[in-house]
Design brief:
The complex is a heterotrimer of chains A (about 475), B (about 525) and C (about 110). By secondary structure, chain B is of the alpha/beta class. Chain B contains 17 helices and 15 strands. In chain B, β14 and β15 form a beta hairpin. In chain B, α7 runs antiparallel to α16 and α10 packs across α13. The longest helix of chain B has 26 residues. Chain C has a domain of about 40 residues. Helices cover about 30% and strands about 10% of the residues of chain C. Chain C has 3 helices and 3 strands, in the order αααβββ. The longest helix of chain C is centred in the N-terminal third of the chain and has 18 residues. Classes of the chains: A alpha+beta (about 475), B alpha/beta (about 525), C alpha+beta (about 110).
């Protein structure tokens, strides 16, 4: 039987996190606003209005282009894409057609076999978002709040080969968008949306079959499910001897089914032409350079720098550069600590990450500042506190915002370094437990841990377990 | 002479000096409207009624006007600056959005649209104390040269002969100004829609440089061609109003960020030594013969050509250098290029009228939103918009756009090059202005050309090159034909050379001040 | 000579334009279109040097007067309610339109 492979290209729409919309001064973000409250004559396409381009939208597009290794074009144009849809108030979308703001570029994915796959970007253009429509028993309800939110549309080459790869692309893209700070990239909130072009072909051939376009997919899981469903459907159709038609499909997330939308207008039917209401967009070197000063070191670069500069394992570097704020937190801590970066990494990955996940905030917003974390690590290093007190301190600092040293002295958490006190407690524990002592002395030396625990308990954890162990062993020999 | 017949620049002074009140001036204008205008245009109206009235208006706004006039009078009483157009009554073509006011663009599809905002040029006039009398009639969406395609009937008539059209598409504006229904009106010019009706009605019409005046709030026709501009009875008023409506606008990113000269004071600079050209290419029209399908060339009537030469002679008396035989060979391509560019833009600009969020929605039962679009648009648009939409669909479809749209944009460059050459200060001609007829003929009779879309467009042949090139043009009255209909001549200038054109126009106005034809009044005013 | 805009092409244009026309309107408009096309076809005969660029606007926007690009500052419009007042059908601030046709795939 013929084996098929999937050919997938993704069209992503990225909402830029500007303050205002792309062509008017309404707020860009209207999440949770009542319908049709964040609107003005311009974004609702009233007769006579004109678009006025937002500088920040251009700058964020420049940053994205640079992060995608795309080439920013010194001159680009806006065009009108004409079609009727009730969420598109002007009856055309202001977009960019054949002279987009940037061209080319790629995103690298790490494959399961540790090879790298380059997903090529065909073009990257600026455009305006449409409003929202929702079904209501045979009617549509229209909300224009979202009209005019700045979008970058980024189209990949048909380089992806499975639903999983598509999901991975989106995960990496989402990470990058947040990293460079141009989009919140929350798919559930529609900051990052994805249309998938899917076709299949027998393995080994190099032609492309007609593709379907799946629209309206709102999460990475849904993208994977929708593409997988469509690959299965196409394979079944082809095996039944049916032809695949270039349909536009809609993913119904609640019912996990694909729906066919009305036949799509062809490129020719959009009648693209230059938007006469906007001048050509000129991005000179100076503006570009100035903008790119805001571009941080990118995740992959930082990952490899961490490996080389701080000698952390690849696994650690992956996690530490999964999110920009965490990577900056790590680096700040390493610089203050001046000891083995791996030690900082361990604390971060075990304890601080748990805190971050529980609280759902970025590392940079923790009350446990890097300097506090380093203070804790150093106190453990110097045996002022033990490891487990260190761990509880992390939460106490986060709760109170107080410096670790303050908490240690206020609560008397410092380790008892006086061996006499420890010895006294050990003796008490031995005296109170004749049976375990006798068992130990008969050879059940594994009980030593239990004895240490008892002593720690009596001392409220404020002693070095190593030291207790030494003393206990000495005493029990007798 | 009634108060409403005074020039704006004089009224402002009289009102500021408290010789008259803004309210008195307003009442005079309203009285004039009552005498000569007849019923305003209305949906499903009758074009035959009151054939001897002007019918400029679609919407009168006397209450808004009264409160505006009172505000001016109060400001003056309180010793505050009432603005540079204090108490001057004016009208606006119904293509401009005015807050809380019906704004129809002459179309059924906007017959119920009340604008939530005001267009920049109108806002600037009102901020300077201008008193808006109301919104005047026009061709539907400005698609026409006679104002007869409005959905609001009766359509405006020519004040010099009410059997004739006032021209178009700003025909309501020019008719109103000619009979004293306001000192000035704001029109729009996409292919000649200010200059042609100004010529037909014997008034002054200014099409400024593209980008000189903000288009914000102007319901778009051909966005790369549309220019707002003033229509007045004298050059000084044109200078006064143009200065107020011009200049950068944060709401229009195609509006030039350029300081605006004081056109009024610059009028006084003499025109001695200015080089003014005449071109043989503006003394003929080229058109497609509907019968034979052949391209025909025909000289314009001698009386039109004579008017231009007569005007040139008078300007020469004032010291201008007249340069003859200036070649403008691309002139004839203006119309075919215009047919393409304006249709592509117009079709797209009309997409927004879909019955979803404002304007007309069909009352018929529909099965889905697409049917709602089709029925609303079919019922809401008249024939002219439908024709333009369909042509726009055709010539901008991808397989045709290379052949038509892109080619038309390149022809625009050619047309522009003609002007670059003659205005080049180091070139062969070094002109400050080109003097041409505004129109090939004087006003035609109602119903004569309406219906034949090709022929109607050729009426714009001498005006449309300025829209392609983006340069300024002014039409000024230059006499009458044997039927007593006004003849207009046109001055075309380089980018942002409005001041020079206005100076030439002013010099001409001065030198012909005593001419017999200057004393004529539209017969409707003497009845 | 055959007409470039046949009744079939014409009906495609009508559907792109979201219009529906009576037979009488269709015939008139199609004939007008074909007439205008004859005039437009004059463009094809104009000698055009390949170096002649298209002009999006007649004037050239020199940097000297090109307006600055808008800064990213919020200005509340306060016109939301009056915009909504213009809509033919509104319910709980949503604009209402008839359904968009679609079809489920099994």
């Amino acid at each position: 039987m013929t084996e098929y492979e999937a050919i997938i290209g993704l069209e992503t729409h990225i909402q830029l996190n500007t303050t205002t919309k792309i062509f008017c001064s309404c707020r860009a973000d209207s999440w949770n606003d009542l319908p049709n409250t964040n609107i003005c004559p311009v974004c609702t396409g009233l007769p006579g209005v004109l678009p006025v381009l937002n500088r920040a939208a251009v700058e964020k597009a420049i940053l994205l282009a640079a992060a995608m290794h795309a080439e920013v074009q010194p001159i680009s144009y806006f065009d009108r894409k004409n079609y009727f849809y009730p969420d598109l108030p002007k009856g055309y979308q202001i977009s960019q057609y054949n002279m987009p703001v940037a061209r080319g570029g790629y995103l690298e994915l790490t494959m399961p076999d540790d090879t790298t796959k380059k997903v090529n970007i065909q073009k990257l253009h600026l455009e305006e978002d449409a409003g929202k429509t929702k079904n209501d028993f045979g009617r549509r309800l229209i909300d224009f709040n979202r009209c005019g939110v700045p979008l970058v549309e980024m189209v990949t080459a048909p380089d992806l080969r499975s639903a999983d790869e598509a999901a991975q692309y989106l995960t990496r893209l989402r990470q990058l968008l947040r990293w460079i700070g141009i989009s919140e990239a929350n798919m559930e909130k529609g900051h990052l949306r994805c249309d998938a072009n899917v076709s299949i072909r027998p393995i080994g051939v190099d032609y492309l079959n007609p593709k379907t376009e799946i629209k309206n997919v709102n999460s990475i899981v849904a993208v994977r499910d929708a593409i997988q469903t469509e690959i299965i459907r196409q394979t079944r159709e082809v095996q039944l001897g049916h032809k695949i038609e270039a349909w536009t499909l809609e993913w119904d997330e609640e019912r996990n089914v694909l729906r066919k939308m009305r036949s799509k207008e062809t490129e020719a039917d959009y009648r693209y032409f230059r938007e006469p209401d906007l001048l050509q967009l000129v991005i000179d070197e100076q503006w570009k350079t100035e903008t790119l000063k805001q571009l941080p070191e990118l995740p992959l670069e930082r990952r490899s720098r961490f490996i080389h500069q701080y000698r952390v394992p690849e696994y650690d570097a992956d996690i530490l550069t999964g999110e920009r704020s965490l990577s900056e937190y790590f680096e700040e801590a390493v610089v203050i600590y001046q000891g083995d970066p791996k030690r900082v990494s361990n604390w971060l990955m075990n304890d601080v990450m748990r805190l971050i996940n529980e609280l759902g905030i970025p590392a940079g917003e923790l009350k446990l500042k890097p300097t506090y974390l380093v203070e804790i690590i150093k106190m453990v290093d110097d045996n002022i506190i033990n490891n487990s007190i260190g761990k509880t301190l992390i939460e106490k600092v986060q709760d109170t915002g107080k410096a670790p040293s303050t908490i240690v002295s206020e609560e008397g958490l410092a380790l008892v370094s006086d061996t006499r006190t420890i010895e006294d407690t050990c003796k008490t524990v031995i005296a109170q437990n004749p049976q375990p002592v006798s068992n130990y002395q008969k050879g059940k030396t594994g009980l030593i841990g239990w004895f240490v625990g008892q002593v720690m308990k009596q001392m409220g954890g404020k002693a070095d377990p190593q030291l207790i162990r030494q003393i206990l062993e000495e005493l029990l020999k007798q | 002479m009634e108060l409403c017949d005074y020039p704006a620049y004089q009224l402002v002074g009289m009102i500021r000096r408290k010789q008259v009140s803004a309210v008195e001036v307003l009442e005079s204008a309203l009285k004039r409207i009552g005498e000569v205008d007849g019923c305003p245009g209305q949906l499903d109206g009758n074009n035959q009624i009151e054939p001897d009235k002007i019918h400029s208006f679609i919407t009168l706004t006397p209450e808004r006007a009264r409160s505006q006039a009172q505000k001016v009078d109060h400001a003056i009483a309180a010793g505050e600056d009432p603005g540079g157009l204090a108490g001057v009554p004016f009208t606006t073509k119904d293509i401009y959005c005015v807050k809380d006011t019906l704004t129809t663009a002459g179309s059924r599809i906007l017959s119920n649209f009340t604008s939530p905002y005001t267009a920049t040029p109108i806002e600037r006039i009102e901020a300077q104390g201008g008193v808006l009398l109301g919104k005047v009639n026009q061709d539907e969406f400005a698609y026409g040269s006679s104002s007869e395609s409005s959905a609001f009937l009766p359509t405006p008539r020519n004040p010099w002969n009410t059997d004739c059209v006032p021209g178009g598409s700003s025909g309501g504006s020019t008719a109103a100004v000619a009979v004293g229904e306001g000192c000035f009106s704001i029109g729009t010019d996409t292919a000649g829609s200010i200059r042609q009706p100004a010529a037909f009605c014997g008034v002054i019409g200014v099409k400024p440089t593209y980008s000189r005046v903000s288009r914000y709030g102007l319901i778009a026709f051909g966005s790369s061609l549309d220019c707002p501009g003033p229509i007045t009875r004298n050059v000084q008023d044109a200078a006064l109003v143009l200065r107020i409506i011009s200049g950068a606008d944060p709401k229009d990113s195609t509006a030039a960020n350029l300081s605006v000269p004081n056109y009024l004071s610059e009028l006084q600079t003499p025109i001695r030594g200015m080089r003014i050209g005449l071109s043989p290419d503006y003394f003929k029209i080229t058109y497609l013969d509907a019968q034979s399908g052949e391209i025909q060339q025909e000289d314009i009537p001698a009386i039109m050509k004579d008017a231009v030469y007569r005007a040139a002679g008078r300007l020469a008396e004032m010291g201008a250098d007249i340069v003859e035989d200036v070649p403008m060979q691309q002139t004839r391509y203006g119309i075919p290029a215009y047919f393409v560019i304006s249709r592509v833009e117009a079709a797209s600009n009309l997409h927004r009228f879909d019955g979803v969020k404002y304007g007309y929605r069909t009352r018929q039962a529909v099965s889905d939103v697409h049917e709602m679009y089709r029925k609303s648009r079919a019922e809401g648009f008249g024939l002219q918009p439908k024709l333009r939409i369909l042509m726009g669909m055709y010539v901008s479809a991808a397989q045709y756009s290379e052949q038509y749209y892109l080619r038309a944009l390149r022809v625009r460059t050619l047309i522009r090059q003609d002007f670059n050459e003659i205005f080049d200060p180091k070139g062969k001609y070094r002109l400050k202005a080109l003097l041409t007829p505004t129109t090939p003929t004087t006003a035609f009779r109602m119903g004569d050309i309406y219906g034949d879309s090709v022929l109607m467009q050729y009426a714009d042949q001498l005006t449309v090159p300025a829209n392609h090139a983006g340069i300024p043009g002014i039409s000024i009255p230059a006499g009458f034909d044997l039927q007593g209909l006004p003849i207009g001549v046109q001055l075309l200038g380089n980018d942002f050379a409005e001041s020079e054109l206005l100076r030439i126009a002013y010099a001409y106005e001065k030198v012909t001040e005593e001419d017999e034809w200057r004393t004529r009044k539209p017969p409707i005013l003497t009845k | 000579m055959t007409e470039p805009i046949s009744p079939e092409l014409f009906s495609h244009l009508v559907s792109l334009a979201a219009l529906e026309l009576s037979n009488q309107e269709s015939e008139y408009l199609r004939q007008q279109l074909n007439n205008q096309l004859k005039a437009i076809n004059e463009l094809a005969d104009i000698p055009l040097d390949p170096n002649i660029p298209p002009a999006l606007h007649g004037i050239q926007y020199s940097p000297a007067f090109r307006p600055p690009i808008r800064g990213d500052f919020w200005q509340p419009s306060e016109l939301a309610d009056s915009i909504l007042e213009q809509a033919p059908e509104v319910e709980e601030r949503f604009i209402i339109v008839p359904d968009i046709p679609h079809q489920d795939l099994e």
